[in-house]
Amino acid sequence: MAAASSPSSSPFISSRRLSCAAFRAAASRVRSPRCMLGSEQVRVVEEGKRMGVAEPRRPPVWTPREPAQEARLAALRPDGRDSRMKIFSGTANRPLAQEIASYLGVDLGKVLIKRFADGEIYVQLQESVRGCDVFLVQPTCSPVNENLMELFVMIDACRRASARSITVVIPYFGYARADRKAQGREAITAKLSANLLTEAGSDRVIVCDIHSTQALGYFDIPVDHIHGQPVILDYLASKTISKDLVVVSPDVGGVVRARAFAKKLSDAPLAIVDKRRQGHNMSEVGTNFLEFDQLQFCSYTYTFQYNFVL
């Protein structure tokens, strides 16, 4: 009887070994760089290795880290306030900035602002703002162009001094009325001013009772629109007001704001002045339904709201 064949000589096992060997050869060809690269690329790589040329190294990617808890605690003053908050003021309304700083319990930042002989503006921060949250208080009231340019220079100085964030506080926003084209070939200066504030380096803008809320959409950075209505209502509540109180809107555009005041003042009556503009800085009020002394009262009310709210 013939001897039984050994397991190594089995035809099934031999075919299985051949298939495994073929699979390994195919896998090595797949992993080979020659299969991944073209012939020209393979030649360049091989020549570079023979000549000892090192492959280019990728630069390390820097990932910013959050400040440690010790650094955050070190930024706090003994009274618990954050010393990284800095408030600076321009020359437009320094007493207002001083009152804001006193209310918050911080010192007003030291800044040197002067004019050269040719009218150029010079700004230098007298203290470090590196890593600080800076607030610049500068209403762009008259002279609008001077105060606006001064604000741009202050923003640039803070940005170049490595401030962490720059918030611009503008109680009165100049050029806010130029928010649309009333006639052909006119400029929308409100949008231009918003673009300049953004390009100068500001991170956030705070305005108070802007002329038209549509101007808020001109900014490409966050804008906080605050209202002076609560302050005025508290002031009026502290005064003795007669029952004959009437809230007057200086024009049709101020009806919404005047109606909001009237509702807060026990739903007081509302009056609207028919004002028509004849040109720039020229307006006419109809006299067919108002007496002269009433016109004087309406004019006084308009001036009071304009100066106090804005």
From TrEMBL:
UniProt enzyme class: transferase
Keyword Metal-binding appears in the UniProt entry: yes
The Ribose-phosphate pyrophosphokinase N-terminal domain sits at 85-201
Spell out the InterPro entries in the cross-references.
Answer: PRib_PP_synth_CS, Pribosyltran_N, PRTase-like, PRTase_dom, Rib-P_diPkinase
Gene Ontology biological process terms from the UniProt entry: 5-phosphoribose 1-diphosphate biosynthetic process; purine nucleotide biosynthetic process; ribonucleoside monophosphate biosynthetic process
EC no. given is 2.7.6.1
Q: Which GO terms describe its molecular function?
A: ATP binding; kinase activity; magnesium ion binding; ribose phosphate diphosphokinase activity
Q: Which UniProt keywords apply?
A: ATP-binding, Kinase, Magnesium, Metal-binding, Nucleotide biosynthesis, Nucleotide-binding, Transferase
Q: What Pfam families does this protein's entry cite?
A: Pribosyltran_N (PF13793)
* Database matches in Gene3D superfamilies: 3.40.50.2020
> What cellular component GO annotations does this protein have?
cytoplasm; ribose phosphate diphosphokinase complex
For whether the record's keyword set contains Membrane, the answer is no
What CDD domains does the record tag this protein with? PRTases_typeI
- Which reactions are catalysed by this chain? D-ribose 5-phosphate + ATP = 5-phospho-alpha-D-ribose 1-diphosphate + AMP + H(+)
The record's similarity note reads: Belongs to the ribose-phosphate pyrophosphokinase family.
Q: What name does this protein carry? A: ribose-phosphate diphosphokinase
Source species = Oryza meyeriana var. granulata
